[in-house]
UniProtKB/TrEMBL annotation:
Protein name: Glucosamine-6-phosphate deaminase
UniProt keyword terms in alphabetical order: Carbohydrate metabolism, Hydrolase
PANTHER family for the chain: GLUCOSAMINE-6-PHOSPHATE ISOMERASE
Domain of life of the organism encoding this protein: Bacteria
Active site (catalytic residues): 67, 136, 138, 143
GO MF annotation list: glucosamine-6-phosphate deaminase activity; identical protein binding
Length: 261
């Protein structure tokens, strides 16, 4: 796991955007794994800026989102299909239909989840997966207790996650759906490169566990310790629980320029 400590979210966004632009340079039809939530916004803002400046194109790329609420109407502004469109897809030049997500209104949920896995497989797998992390250590919507071998499936959200996400639903926890469809931890581990962004003091405990804690379903993000190419971008506020912060800083400073992340 490569740990990069950055001063603020914008710096994390720039490092991740560099990696995505480098990927698209060498593979214009790359498959991106797209996360929703606040964490990736700085990445999407930076990519949208670079796109406007003519520095990057998504015209041949494809995308898969991580997860979706169950039961929100298709036109609900907080369905992740609409969130990712608003936050990123509509701001760059993906062709229509190039970005898919699991269908939270599917009648046959198991068939939908299996089909979503198959669609990722048909696209050749995810080249670079963007991730955030929940305050309880979830990635995508893999809540504590998730099988480390899980695939795309239906999950129940914890009270904590529903409270965290209530800010998107007018502050009303009751309006946050109870169920979701989410890529599993094993699905995420198959992405060829995983880039997780964690910013803010409320993420410090989860970040400490993710990077330096034991691998455990109690903190699902810890499964990324098994990934051969995981990059974790952490801002100063989220880094306060790390024991080896000086080592991560020193290692990144000494990294050869040609290496990228
Ligand atoms: C959400 C999403 C995750 C996201 C996480 C953190 O519920 N399902 O993909 O990474 O929680 O969200 P945020 O980045 O807004 O803190």
């Amino acid at each position: 796991m490569e740990v990069i400590l950055v001063p603020d979210p914008a710096a994390a966004g720039a490092v991740a955007a560099d990696a995505i632009c480098a990927l698209l340079d060498r593979k214009p039809d790359a498959v991106l794994g797209l996360a929703t939530g606040g964490s990736p916004l700085a990445i999407y803002d930076e990519l949208a800026r670079r796109h406007r400046a003519g520095r990057v194109s998504f015209a041949a790329a494809r995308g898969f989102t991580l997860d979706e609420y169950v039961g929100l109407p298709a036109d609900h502004p907080e369905s992740y299909r609409n969130v990712i469109d608003r936050d990123f897809v509509s701001r760059v030049d993906f062709p229509p239909g190039a970005v898919q997500g699991p269908d939270g209104l599917a009648v046959d949920v198991e068939a939908e989840c299996a089909e979503y896995e198959a669609a990722i497989g048909r696209a050749g797998g995810v080249d670079l997966q963007i991730l955030g992390i929940g305050t309880d250590g979830h990635i995508a919507f893999n809540e504590p207790g998730s099988s480390l071998a899980s695939r795309t499936r239906i999950k129940s959200l914890t009270r904590q996650t529903r409270m965290d996400n209530a800010r998107f639903f007018g502050g009303d926890v009751a309006a946050v759906p109870v169920h979701c469809l989410t890529q599993g931890l094993a699905t995420i581990l198959e992405a060829r490169h995983v880039v997780l962004v964690a910013t803010g003091a409320h993420k410090a405990e989860a970040v400490g566990q993710l990077i330096e804690g034991p691998i455990s379903a109690r903190w699902p993000a810890t499964v990324l310790q098994l990934h051969p190419r995981a990059t974790v971008l952490v801002d100063d506020d989220a880094a306060t629980r790390l024991e080896l912060g000086d080592y991560y800083r020193q290692t990144y400073r000494a990294k050869p320029d040609w290496q990228g992340i």
